[in-house]
Amino acid sequence: MKPRVRFAPSPTGFLHIGGARTALFNWLYARHTGGTFVLRIEDTDTARNTKAAVDVILDGLRWLGLNWDEGPLTSDATGASKGDLGPYFQSQRKENYRRRVEALLSRGLAYEHEGAIKFKMTREPIVIHDLVVGDVERKLTDREDLDPDFVIVRSDGEPVFHLVNVVDDLEMNMTHVIRGEDHLSNTAKHIALFRAFGVQPPKYAHIPLILNSDGTKMSKRDQGALMTAYMDGGYLPEALVNYLCLLSWSPKDNREKLPLAEVVERFDLPQILRANARFDHDKLLWLQGEYARELEPDRFYELCVHALSKAGMDTNTFPVAYIKAALDTCRGKIKLFTELPGYAGFYFEETVEINPEAAKKDFVPENKSRLERLRDAFAKTEPFTAANLEIALKSTATELGVKAGVLVHPTRLACTGNTAGPSLYHLLEVLGKEKVLARMNRAIELFG
RNA sequence: GACCCUAUGGUCUAGCGGUUAGGACACUGCCCUUUCACGGCGGUAGCUCGGGUUCGAGUCCCGAUAGGGUCGCCA
Description:
Layout: E1 4-7, H1 17-33, E2 36-39, H2 51-64, E3 71-72, E4 81-82, H3 94-106, E5 110-113, E6 116-119, E7 126-130, E8 134-138, H4 142-146, E9 150-153, H5 161-171, E10 176-180, H6 187-196, E11 203-207, E12 210-211, H7 227-231, H8 237-245, H9 260-266, E13 277-278, H10 281-293, H11 297-310, H12 320-328, H13 340-344, H14 356-362, H15 365-380, H16 386-400, H17 404-416, H18 424-431, H19 433-446
The structure holds one RNA strand of 75 nucleotides.
C-alpha cells in the first residue's frame, strides 16, 4: 500500500515556517515513495477561522510548490475539493466526529463529565515506535496520574483536536503521520484513541523543531517566523525550500545546494536528524544569492519588474530593451529582489537623489573642473558604449594627472546617487548619453 | 513539579570503535576588481562534563548538566 501522508494546519491567519517545513517533509516523503500528499484544514475553531486565513495556507504552499493530491481546491470550506475521502475541512466533518464519539460512549470507552465528554485513557505507559526518534515509552506525568482521562468533546459540543485529528487520520487512511516533535508527548493519547476505535495507528515520524537563531522557540512574533516574511521579502521559493531541506536532513555528501528533484529521490524518514535546528538566516541568504544568480533571464526580468512596481516604480514607460539592459547590469549583484528598487531605481527615475554623505566626500571643489572635463569627453564619445566610455574616462584621468578612481566615484554618484551599484561603464551605456550628461551637469551645480 | 526528546566549531551538518575530526554559512587575511558583488587561495574556531565497557571512544552504556517539548473544555 502506497503511503498516505497529510499536512493538517489550523487556519490561524499565519503559516509558520515550522509548519511549512512540516508540509515540505510530508510532501517529500509522498513524492519519494509515490504516495499521496493530503491537505486537510483543521478549522474546528469556527470563530477564529476565516476564508482569508485558509488562503494564507493555500498561497503559502503553492508559493513553495508543494502541490497536494487531495484536499481543498479553494479556501471555501463548502466548495469543491479533490480526492474521495473528503470533506477536507474539519468544519464539514462534524457528523463523522459525532458518530465516532457515540461509538466510544456506547462501548463505555468515553463518558460524560460536567457537560463535556472525556475519553478513558489507559494508565499503562504507551510505547511509540517513532520512525525518527525510535521507540519512546511515554509514562504518565504526575498531573495525568491524578486523572489520565482527557476531554474529547467540549461542553459546548465542539470536538477537540485529539479526537478530530485521530478520526480524520483514520478515515482518510493515513499510513504515516509526519509532524513536529512538539506532538510527541501527545502521541500516546492518539495511539490510545486509535486502539479504542479498533484500528492500528499509523506510523509516526516526529521531526525536530526549528528554533530561533538564539535557540529559543520560534513564535509568530519572531523575525522570519512567518512565510509572508519570505514571500514578501524578495526571496525565491526554491532557495527557501532548499534551505529548509537542509534543516534536520542532509544529503551526506557535503553538498548544500541541490535540486528538489534530487532531494525527492534521496529523502527518507530514518535519516532525519533528531536534534532541533536553529534557523540560520545568513545561510538562507547565501542560498538565495546562489539561486538568484542562476535564474532564467525571463523569470529574472519578471521578478525584477514586479519588485520595482511594488516599490512604486512604473517601468511601463521605458522600452523593453532598455529595461532588460538595465536589469542585466544587476544580475548577480543583488540577492533579494527587495534590494532592487534601491539598487537600480536610478535607471527608472527622472532625477536621482544623491547620497549626502557620499557627496561630502566626492563633490569637493577640486573635483568640479575634473568632472566638467569628463563630461566634455563623454559628450564627444561616440558610440556611447561601455568600452568607449572606459577609454574616455581613463584618458581624461591621465590628462588630468589623477587616478581613474578620482573620476569614477563622483561620476557614479552623479548618475546613480549611490556609492555602490552596477559596473559604472555599463550603467552609463544603458543610461545613454543624454541622461548621463544631464545628471553630470546637475551634479556639477551641487558642488560645494 | 512530572513525563518525553536532544547534545560535533557561533550556526547547519559529515562521521557510525582506530580520521591530521571533513564540508557549508558566518567571521577574517591575501589576490582579482579603481564601486558593490562574484570568483580564487589561506586563516581562526568543534566532539558539554563525569564515570564505565574496550587494547583503543565523538562514535557503545550509565549519570550529571544544558537546551527543547508535553502535561488545556488551544491546535
